[in-house]
Give the backbone structure.
Amino acid sequence: MHKNVPGKEGRALEAYHCKPWNKHSCCTWNTTSSINQDGTLSLYGITWDQCPQLKKMSPKCKEHFERDTCFYECSPNLGPWIVEDEKSKISRKERMVNVPLCAQDCKDWYHDCMFDYTCNDNWGKNWNWAKKGTSEMCTKPCKLIKDYFPNPKLFCENIFNFSFKYETNTSICMNMVPKGNKNYNVSMDKAKQLVREWETSGCVTIVSNMMAVFLAVTVCLKFNYF
């Protein structure tokens, strides 16, 4: 389940991937169990085991995708990167774009998944949606992830159709598992930047820091990746 605004969960987010957001989350407690039970990406029908005839996704690789799903579902700091997406082929019409993910997070994710299999070079499109949740969704051949994505940058930026941006500047990047207030600070800086751009463009005549706060910490990403 997902919320419109973040808040504390009365029941703990049990899996460690989602625990960092227990006190201020956009997801509800049963999000964790749903992720573990159905084995599909972010509960939207893309199975992790796309090529079971060759190999099921390794535990280490799956762990990263579970962590990513918690980040996507639970983090309250993604507001500045929400954009409208009228071309969505699923059920939601907004998504996150170019969230600056720390390069080391990308490298770790890629390293643990590069010898697992996928049948798509962009998980945001090119699926047979009529067969969602099964390996029959594939419209391309099964290959190693490293064959579809030759390096961590291409992997992080292309796997979810540019939901993430590979960011080497550690002072302005987000961590999949939040470290202290870093993600909040990065989100706040981005929100203030957007406010300044709106003021300069004349699109907003009266704005304040409160709008930046709203964007950075009170908007839940209640939309799909794609």
Observations:
- The chain has one domain: 2-217.
- Residues 41 and 65 are 7 Å apart (CA to CA).
- The two ends are 18 Å apart (CA to CA).
